[in-house]
Structure formats: structure tokens, C-alpha cells
Specification:
The structure is a homodimer.
Chain A: H1 4-17, H2 30-37, H3 41-53, E1 57-58, E2 66-67, H4 82-88, E3 93-104, H5 107-113, E4 120-130, E5 133-142, H6 147-151, H7 160-168, E6 174-183, H8 186-192, E7 199-208, E8 214-223, E9 227-234, E10 240-244
Antiparallel strand pairs in A: 1-2, 3-4, 4-5, 5-8, 6-7, 7-8
Helix pairs in contact in A: 1-3, 2-3
Chain A binds a DNA duplex through residues 3-5, 29-31, 39-43, 45-46, 59-65.
Domain HTH gntR-type (chains A, B): 2-71
Protein name (chains A, B): GntR family transcriptional regulator
Keywords (chains A, B): DNA-binding, Transcription, Transcription regulation
Chain lengths: 246, 246
DNA sequence: GCTGAGAACTTGTCTGAACAAGTTGGCCCC
DNA sequence: GGGGCCAACTTGTTCAGACAAGTTCTCAGC
């Protein structure tokens, strides 16, 4: 919590949580908040802009801001990593590496990770679970420059993201996710302890660093009876988009 | 295109599209752009903030902004509506109402639409297609105060959103989407011309007005061989969240 | 009691300025 | 040639003020 506008955004979130500002009610005017926190109107606007993009409050020119919802479920911020998400829900994340090998980058790998074709890239097949029950099969390809750091990780480590950050300072900053549904393959079925052809939620994603350099791409398949995804869209912040099949 | 910062954002998007600023290259400094467009630094910052949240450019304090990608696929902005999306891709959206009836609101309907239980709400079962091929089954429940306007709509109308806007001025401003995978039911299979138990991508969504008033909630099932969804996440803009099954 | 006009209020846009914090490149020295 | 330090550059944060554009409330008039 470093900057003033982040502090104010957080105080407002908490105030909404403890129903100081009721859902459906109105937030104080910008000038009111500015006076109360002893900052300029611009700083207040930065704070409320954050809440607006989170969908907590609605905003229209001329009218006071309205509280739309209290904090969505619980977790909202730091849940890019499966392990972090599980911990935030009070459940234990487990992980197990089933197979791991270097293969020369295919044309597809090379394009997605911005590498030259043929460079050896690390393929990892991992099963992840909540409290021991398998819920996710992850097939990940890591860029050559990060592979050595991944290779050394304990096969049973619950959080790869965490270990990569501690080991190399790497931060996953951007992600592009393509979501669809597929029938479980024989291998999926065995690893997740379900029947073949059961529906799975597939998320194919590319994760990049702050500089926009791709780190990994992954095909994740979730047991759809255990995990779903939630997306919030608002006017001017259209994170969710449809795509036709290639 | 009314405000100056929107204009500048658009010019930058176009400049990136025509590779004036190459992917991987650097954007001019804020002061540079401010001078070039004859505006203050604050206005330039509003413009580049839009591109950052779209994932087109990356930003780190101290370093020049980097171009991460050219415009994502094509459509980005105005694709909340199925019909608008289809048109933007040069395909024709079709729609057909299979069934339509008023039922008293269940406790679930009432909670999601913020109505009193028992109020008659309009249930509509609709099949939608691209160029005649069915790709989507939509089971929608409309709030009582908008139902009359929906009821009057031509059963074969391609765009309900458009007609509602023209008829009542209603704008869909916010949406909460929960995504998972399900096996096709017998009815789904018949309507979509696929086999039962084939995997479908299910999107359950609640759409609200600018004031945060829920308008409709819907269970949409997409043929996963025809349509997928794409979500862009960035640091500080975490639209995508996992959820456990209820 | 209802309607319509207008005043008061509120958010959106924009300016110009200053300092803080982080990055990059070049220069000097070894 | 290589390493390290510093200066120049760039983005992030914050302020104070001004006007535009839209909403809400009040009050007069019917």
C-alpha cells in the first residue's frame, strides 16, 4: 500500500464491505471525498476509477456514483496463480509433475513464445488438485530462457509462480486466455479420475512479462464440476471477447 | 469520437495497426506525444491508459512504453451483442425464438434480477446461428419491467440488443459472466444439431443497466467447435477469476 | 396534485506545474 | 575490454483550477 490513491481505493472497498455505503446507495461526491481525505479531486478520481473497473461502483456523468456490489466473492486481486487462489479460499493446492522433457520448438511454439523454431523448449505435464482431489491438467511449454529455472523445481511443488518469482524475480504481468470446452481425452480422464468424453473447460493461455516478453504457453483443462471462471465486463472495459474457431 | 483523449487513443491504435510503431518497438514519450497533438500530458496519459488496459502496449515507470501487439483479432469494442459481433466479422447472425412464456419468478430469478419472488418474468428460449448454422442456445429470463418490450420483438430478429435500444433507449452497461463446460442435453443436441453429451461452453451471465439495475439473466450454451472466448488480463486489471463449483 | 423551467450539484475533460521513482546509456577508470 | 557510477530521460503521483455536460431537486405556475 504505497500510493495515496491506492490507499483511498482500499478504504472505500472496506467501507463498502462493512456496508457503510450500502449496495444500491450513493457514494459521496468527489469533492466531498477529496475534502475528507485531504487530497485533490484528481487523486480521488484515480481511486474510484479502480473500483469502477472492478465493477463495484457505477458511474454516470452528472449523477452521484452508485454502489453496485460489495467485494465479489472474496478473492479479487492476486489470483493469477492457482496456488495463491487456492490458499485465498482456505484450500490446499497440490501439484504433481507427470512428465517433463525438452523438445525442439515447433512453428506454433516459436510463434507463441517469440522464439526461433527448433530451439529446445521445456514441455511439462502437470496435474493439480484442491485438497488432494485432482481438478486440473496443465500442459505447459516454457520459453528456452526460463526453462533452466523451471527444470530445477520440485515436481511436487504447489506453486510454480511463487518459486519462479523467488528464484529469478520473474513477474507474470499480462495474460491472454482463450476459453472453450472439449471432451476429456483418455489421458485427461485417467489423470483427473473421470470418464472419457466428459466435458472439460479448456483455457489456452500465453503469459508474458511486464516487457511483453512471452514466458510460457499452456493448455489447461479443468474439471467443470469443480472449477468455473468468472469475468466482469463493463462499458469501456471489455475484457471478454468472442472468437470463432480457427 | 467526441473527446480529445479518445481521438488520440484511436490515432495511436491506427498507427500501431499500420506498423508506424512496430510490435516490440517503443512508443514516443508522453511529452513528445503531448507536443505533437498539442495537448497536455494528462490528456495523453488518458489515451495511453486505454491502450494499456486493452493490452496493446506495456508500461513501466522510468522506461518508454513498448508496443506489445497490434489490434487483438479485429473486434474489440462493441461486441457485447451477438449480432454486432457477427456483423463485425462479416458473417450474418440469425435468431429464432423456440419458446416464450411468462412464469412466476423463482427465488433464484428474484435474487439475480433483484425482483420480488412470484412476479411474472419472461422466459425465452432462442437459437442463434452464424450464416444459418446454429451455434448457440440461449435461455434468457427478462426482468418484469423490460418484458413487455421484449415480447413484442419479431421472433426471427437477429439483434435483440439493438431493438431494445431503439425501442426503449436501454443500454447494457455491465455484465458478470460465469463460464464452465457442460455436456449437451437432449434438447441442446437437437437444437444445435450435434450429439448428446458433446461438450458445450456454458456462459451464465447477468446484464445490468448503467445504474446497476439487472435487466436479464441468461444461460448461453455455445458449440465449442464454432465459438470460443478470449479474455485479456493485465496487472491491475484482473477481469478473469476462478471460482469453485457452488 | 402535476408539470415544466431553472438553479444547484456532480461527474467528465483538460491544463500546467512540480516532484518522486525507476530506467537507460554513456563516460570514466581500472 | 569490462565494470561501475552518474546524468539525462521517462513514467508515476499529486495538486489546484477551470469549464463542459449531464442529473437532480426545488419551486412557481397551472
Amino acid at each position: 500500500m504505497s500510493t495515496r490513491h491506492e490507499e483511498i481505493a482500499d478504504e472505500l472497498r472496506q467501507a463498502i464491505d462493512r456496508e457503510e455505503y450500502a449496495v444500491g446507495g450513493r457514494l459521496p461526491a468527489e469533492t466531498e471525498l477529496a475534502a475528507r481525505y485531504g487530497v485533490s479531486r484528481g487523486t480521488v478520481r484515480q481511486a474510484v476509477a479502480a473500483l469502477t473497473s472492478e465493477g463495484l461502483i457505477g458511474s454516470r456523468q452528472g449523477a452521484r456514483r452508485v454502489v453496485l456490489a460489495s467485494r465479489r466473492s472474496q478473492s479479487f486481486a492476486e489470483l493469477r496463480s492457482f496456488a495463491q487462489w487456492a490458499r485465498a479460499m482456505g484450500r490446499e493446492a497440490t501439484g504433481r509433475v507427470v512428465a517433463q522433457e525438452y523438445l525442439p520448438a515447433s512453428a506454433q511454439d516459436a510463434a507463441r513464445l517469440q522464439l526461433r523454431p527448433g530451439v529446445p523448449v521445456l514441455h511439462v505435464l502437470r496435474v493439480r488438485g484442491l485438497d488432494g482431489e485432482p481438478v486440473l491438467v496443465e500442459r505447459t511449454v516454457y520459453a528456452d530462457w526460463i526453462s533452466p529455472a523451471v527444470e530445477g523445481i520440485d515436481p511436487d511443488a504447489p506453486s510454480v509462480t511463487q518459486l519462479l518469482f523467488e528464484g529469478t524475480g520473474l513477474v507474470f504481468a499480462y495474460g491472454e486466455h482463450v476459453i472453450d470446452a472439449v471432451a476429456a481425452s483418455a489421458q485427461d480422464a485417467e489423470l483427473l479420475d473421470i470418464r472419457r468424453t466428459n466435458p472439460l473447460l479448456r483455457v489456452r493461455r500465453v503469459t508474458t512479462t511486464r516487457e511483453g516478453r512471452p514466458v510460457e504457453w499452456s493448455d489447461d483443462r479443468y474439471r467443470s464440476d469443480a472449477v468455473s471462471f468468472s469475468v466482469h465486463n463493463s462499458i469501456g472495459n471489455n475484457a471478454l471477447a468472442r472468437k470463432t474457431a480457427e
